[in-house]
Amino acid sequence: MIELPPSCVRVERSRARRAVAAALRRRRLQGDGQPTLVTEFGGTAVGGAEGWGYETAKTEDDLLSICADQVGALIDGEIVQGFCYTQLTDIEQEVNGLLTYDRRHKLDPEKARSITARRAK
């Protein structure tokens, strides 16, 4: 296991807004004025594909639901100022991208945008 600097925190896979916020709040450096960023999250493969993903969505709608839950947990948690979904495209051994290896969309881009562009509840 790689030792992370004190300013970093690893949040276990969760789609629960309160769980994500609580995990980040415990490790957040108070009063330092720096934004809290989640620099890697996501990792959902789409069913039928051979390769690796943290979890597997059966359909596009299932993938949309998982992404909406994950992004919602970050946006609604009121701690995170920015995030980066991992990963953008599939690669040889990982099929957890938003695009296939040959750059075809796994999700309707407008539906994906509506998930990431929404305001906190």
UniProtKB/TrEMBL annotation:
Listed InterPro entries: GH
Protein name: Glycoside hydrolase family 2 catalytic domain-containing protein
